[in-house]
Design goal:
single chain, 197 residues, alpha+beta, four-stranded mixed beta sheet, four-stranded antiparallel beta sheet, 4 helices, 10 strands, elongated
C-alpha cells in the first residue's frame, strides 16, 4: 500500500493545479489580435513601412510587404488604432475588440474610420491649388523605409534627382551626401563612401 500524502500537501497541490489552469484562461480573456492592411488610394498600392499604433499603449508595428500588419496582445474593449505615413494625415479608427478574438480591419491612407457619412463639411480643409508629382510618393517611401530600418541607413528616392545623364548610376550617386566619385575621362568610376574607396 502507498502511504497517503499529508492533508496540507494535498491542499497545496490542488491550489497549484487550479492556479495553473486559471492563469492562462485569465490571460486569454483580456487581450485580442488586430490584423489588416494599409492601402494608398492615390497610387492604388498597399503601403510598406506605415506605422500602426494602438492609442494609449506602447503597441506599434510597421506594415510589411503587401501593407499587412498584425498587432498582438491588444487590450479587449474599445480601442483606437492610428496609422501614420509620411505625407499623409494620420488615419484613425475606433474598433471594438472582444477578449480572445482576432479582428481584421482595412485602413485607407487619408481616411478616418470614425467620420460619419454626411459630416464631411465640418472636417473639410480648403487648400490652394497645388501640383502632385510622383516624386512625393517616392520620397515618402524612402523616408518611411529609413525611419523603420533597424540599421543606420540613408534611403533616397530616385525621383529626387530626375533623369541622370547617359544612364550612368555614378551620376546619380555623386549627389548623395558622403559619396565622392572618381572619374576616368568623362565617366564616373569607383565611388568613395566617407573617404574610403
Amino acid at each position: 500500500m502507498h502511504p497517503t500524502p499529508p492533508k496540507p500537501f494535498r491542499l497545496l497541490l490542488a491550489a497549484s493545479l487550479a492556479l495553473a489552469f486559471a492563469l492562462p484562461a485569465f490571460a486569454q480573456s483580456t487581450t485580442g489580435i488586430i490584423t489588416g492592411h494599409v492601402f494608398n488610394p492615390i497610387n492604388k498600392e498597399y503601403v510598406h513601412d506605415a506605422e500602426v499604433h494602438v492609442e494609449g499603449t506602447n503597441l506599434t508595428v510597421p506594415t510589411e510587404n503587401g501593407g499587412y500588419f498584425s498587432l498582438a496582445n491588444v487590450p479587449a474593449g474599445k480601442v483606437t488604432v492610428t496609422v501614420t505615413y509620411t505625407g499623409f494625415a494620420p488615419t484613425s479608427a475606433e474598433l471594438e475588440l472582444k477578449a480572445g478574438d482576432s479582428l481584421a480591419y482595412e485602413f485607407e491612407l487619408g481616411a478616418t474610420g470614425s467620420t460619419k457619412p454626411g459630416s464631411g463639411d465640418a472636417d473639410m480643409v480648403k487648400l490652394d491649388t497645388f501640383k502632385v508629382t510622383t516624386a512625393t510618393d517616392g520620397n515618402a517611401k524612402a523616408l518611411q523605409h529609413q525611419r523603420n530600418s533597424m540599421n543606420m541607413s540613408r534611403s533616397v528616392s530616385a525621383e529626387a534627382f530626375g533623369n541622370v545623364t547617359e544612364g550612368n548610376v555614378g551620376e546619380f550617386l555623386k549627389y548623395l551626401p558622403g559619396v565622392e566619385m572618381e572619374y576616368s575621362e568623362a565617366d564616373t568610376r569607383g565611388p568613395r563612401l566617407g573617404g574610403m574607396s
